[in-house]
Amino acid sequence: MRVAMIGTGYVGLVSGACFADFGHHVTCIDKDQAKVDMLRSGGIPIYEPGLDQLVQRNVREERLSFDTDLTQAVREADAVFIAVGTPSRRGDGFADLSYVHAAAKEIAQVMDGYTVVVTKSTVPVGTGDEVEKIIRETRPDGEFAVVSNPEFLREGAAIDDFKRPDRVVVGTEEERAREVMRELYRPLYLNETPILFTARRTSELIKYAANGFLAMKITFINEMADLCEAVGANVQEVARGVGLDNRIGGKFLHAGPGYGGSCFPKDTLALTRTAQEAGTPLELIESTVRINDRRKQDMAKKVVKAMGGNVTGKTIAVLGLTFKPNTDDMREAPSLDIIPALQTAGATVRAYDPAGIVEAEKLLKNVEFTSGPYLCAEGADALVIITEWNEFRALDTDRLKEAMAGDVVVDLRNIYSPEDMIQRGFKYTSVGR
């Protein structure tokens, strides 16, 4: 099949490359000429493990191409995916749909013959209706269907998530559109992937409901961690005891500094706004948003407390800046709250991240960025682990102790054993233990 993918961000580029790897012919379109030139020359504008090889292979096999003009790709396409950004709108928290609406209008102007227009971007309930209205107003004679097909990709594991998903959700009640979507995802039938067909509005809500629930799980275990510290329990054992219940499951029950990234923060906020507008406020999600925002600030206070209540003139080494490992994504990362709070308290901050420094330099001021964990720790009064990159899981603690001027380690991801770290001479603080 022929596919046009509008947008080459995380969702668009991964989805386009994976569809091409399935054997479809995919053109990814982006208005950014520099980004398109980079992709054509074999470069990748984002960090996602395995994506560079996937893109290069499918470009070489002539199944994947890139363009700034959508005209030819849309005219030839069986399906056109809208995978543009939907950031939180300033002021009210609603999803900004201006890029989605603009893409719909451009698609309508050039589509030729029956076209399935698929919303891949995360959008509020009812957006498909708006997209259909825009296309119909622009092309009253057009033959098309608007379908919702939300993505459930985890940054750092996006390729595997696309090729081996828990489920594929498709929102349409038009049989002709269903057949197109079945054909697109036919390679997944080999893995017996469930393909759930629903009404369009239901499909749109499934994405928000899933992210809202996962955000609540994270926030729940973070609150349990606080209780564990207060009563002398171990949150990791609590999480395991709870997660072994098949009705609950162990995923997303890892205590830490709060969730971040491109999805959970904006999607939970957009979901609460949609519910408020519909007159059915979601108090659980509203509380989740408030607690998560507060938690990031609380983590800075935790560091200050671990250093005796005063960090003025102290040097703090921070390991991990991105919101999670295996990505360069800094959006809503806990480090963006924790580091400025430590600086405001009087500390000097030095930092290292395996992939996020280029993005971090744009967002964090007066931070000394280093090229490795031990260089980062050199002469530091305290070391703080914010992101659990694999290379931080087995640090040479003797070398670390020798490099540091102080002995305070604050592990916000519970990578290390408290008993072992104390035995090695550190004043060790973790979360919920």
Query: Roughly how many Å apart are the termini?
Result: 53 Å
- Per DSSP, the total helix count is 17
Low-confidence stretches: none
Strand order of the largest sheet: 3-2-1-4-5-6
Overall body shape = globular
Strand fraction band? 5-15%
List the keywords.
14% strand, six-stranded parallel beta sheet, 14 strands, 44% helix, alpha/beta, 17 helices, 433 residues
Question: Care to describe what's here?
Answer:
The chain is α/β, with parallel strands linked by helices. It has helices at residues 10-21, 33-40, 51-60, 71-76, 98-110, 127-138, 158-163, 175-184, 200-231, 235-243, 264-277, 283-306, 335-344, 357-363, 373-377, 397-403, 418-423, and strands at residues 2-6, 25-29, 64-67, 79-82, 115-119, 144-148, 168-171, 195-198, 315-319, 348-352, 367-369, 382-385, 408-411, 427-429. The strands form three sheets. The protein has a six-stranded parallel beta sheet, sandwiched between helices. Helix 9 (200-231) crosses helix 10 and helix 9 (200-231) packs parallel to helix 12. The radius of gyration is 23 Å and the shape is globular.
Describe, in short, the structure shown.
The protein is of the alpha/beta class and 433 residues long. It contains 17 helices and 14 strands.
